Amino acid sequence: MTPSHKRIIRVNSKYSAIPLILLLSTISHLGWGQTGGSKKIYKELAKKIIVVDGSLAFLELGSKEETSKLSQIMLVRHGEPALNKKGWRKRKEAEKFVRAYDSVGIYEPEYLPVSLRSGEIDTILTSSLNRSISTAKYLAKDQISLKNDTLFREFERKVFSFPNIKLPLKFWTATSRVLWIGGLNKKNIESFSQAKKRAKRGVARLEESAKKNGKTVLVSHGFLNRYLTKYLQKNGWHLAYNGGKGYLSQQLLIRYSN
To answer: Domains in the chain, please, with CATH?
Structure first.
């Protein structure tokens, strides 16, 4: 399906004549750090982002020196897993579905969610789950190395105990997740609290990568990405672009340091 944000071009008409380098220099000159003033500048920077045919690119500034002061982290949700997600299932069939969901690849995407310039990055970080690795391979095009890490796997889940009767598959998966969040469906898997702590460790890993490389791409999962975004924002990162929650959705977080 064609992405709803096809050929979006975001341009701020009021500030279109002001180079990005001037905007970021203002942050540095005024020493705004994490104040409301800096948020206004970051908001204007976000309007400079261009998304064409569903593909999001990193921001580029007026000079290499200024670009090096801008750290960027792009979070990408995996593509659509290659299995049937509809219909009614018995509990044991739902359990089989969850295991399959964590092992299959993805359907070939109709568009790439990330537009990478030649040589822009040399590594894409991924979850250890196959649907993320498969998605990252489409982005890498055999030209960028992949590094998968269990730290970035999706928040764990299991089908809750219930009579083995047929119910909508969505009922099994959604109810299981809600019960897990409430602490009632965590036996033999990580708890919600443990998963959030893992997400915080993931943020530290992403920040380390962004500090070293300037630009970082992570292909992982919807639930995890939600908390990575939340904790990155708490650490002073600004959400410059939010592509939603669907398959291949992207979030771009940026932070400028003098």
So the answer is: 20-256 (3.40.50.1240)
